[in-house]
Specification:
Helices cover about 10% and strands about 25% of the residues. It is mainly β and about 100 residues long. It folds into two domains: about 5-40, no CATH class; about 55-100, no CATH class. The chain is rod-shaped, with a radius of gyration of 24 Å.
Amino acid sequence: MPLYDYEHEDDGCELGKVFERKQSVKEPSLSVCPKCNHPVRRLISIPYINTPMSDTDLKSKGFTKLVRRDKGVYENVTALDHESRYFKEGHPETLPDLKRKIGD
């Protein structure tokens, strides 16, 4: 169920000036606070998306990250033990092992 942010149109109550509420997408938005019955409005907020940030996170989630090191040379910073650390243009044996990472 998604979380929605609501803001009191006055000073707020024990929930605070801004509070969160879990609601079904099908439910209408609140017009009054469930605690104090004062008017509220729903805020537009950016959804939280959890994305891996470090190379270790990417590697543990099965992603491959190539960083350009020279013309036609890329370092596989998420290389697994059996993979080549460097991918060189024109050398297919140095490609990351995508068949092992991609499944049905």
